[in-house]
Amino acid sequence: GAGVSQSPRYKVTKRGQDVALRCDPISGHVSLYWYRQALGQGPEFLTYFNYEAQQDKSGLPNDRFSAERPEGSISTLTIQRTEQRDSAMYRCASSLDGISGGFPTGELFFGEGSRLTVL
Amino acid sequence: DAKTTQPTSMDCAEGRAANLPCNHSTISGNEYVYWYRQIHSQGPQYIIHGLKNNETNEMASLIITEDRKSSTLILPHATLRDTAVYYCIVRVANRDDKIIFGKGTRLHILP
User: Fold this and answer.
1) pLDDT value at B96 more than 70
2) How many residue pairs bridge chain A and chain B with CB atoms within 8 Å of each other?
3) Which of B28, B47, B98 would best serve as a mutation to test chain A binding (most A beta carbons within 10 A)?
4) Which strands, in side-by-side order, build the sheet including B55-56?
5) How far apart are CA B101 and CA B78, in angstroms?
6) What average pLDDT does chain B have?
7) C-alpha count within 13 angstroms, C-beta hemisphere, residue B91
C-alpha cells in the first residue's frame, strides 16, 4: 500500500483478554515506531525497531506489553491481560532510514491508528 | 521527557502568518529540530526540520536562533485547515534514538 496500514482500526475487548495490534509499514522503510496516545495528549513513545532489531523498548509501560518485527517489515504490538488503563489510540509510524551518514533522514509517516477500548 | 517547551495554545486570524515558538534551551550540537502537526484525530504529519540554518518548504518556514536555543515555525498564510496541534521535537543526528513528542501547541485559526 501507499501508506502505513494498521489493523484493526477499532478493537473493543474485555479486561483480562490479550490483544494484538498490527502495523504494516511503507515498503522499504527501515525504522518502525510504536506510540500510544491518550485523548488530548501527545503521542507517547513505546518502542522502535530498525529492520527486525528492537532498538529501544524503554517506553513499554510494563511486561504485559511486547512488540516484534520478525522479518523487518510487519510489526505486532501485543498487550496481555488487558486493563482499562490500556484504552488508548495506538499509533505506528515508519521511516525510510534511521540514520544515514550521521544525519537523521526521512520523516516519520504515521498510520491511522488502532483505537483500543478495554471494558 | 520532551526536550522542548511550547505554549499550550495560540490563535491566529485566517490569512495572517502564524508564528509558533519552541524553546529547546538544552539542545546539543548534534540535535536537529523537527516540527510535526496533528489534525483532529489523524496521525502526526511531518512539516519541516533543520539544524542551524533557516529552512523553507512548501508548507512552512523554520527559523532557528543563532544560539539554537529556540526556533519558530512560520505558516505564512494560515487557513482554517491549519488548525491542529503542532509538535516541536529535537532529535540526535549521529545515532538512532527514540523520537519523543511533547504536548505541542494547539493552534486555532480564526475565520
Assistant:
1) no
2) 67
3) B98
4) B18-23, B70-75, B61-64, B55-56
5) 23
6) 91
7) 27
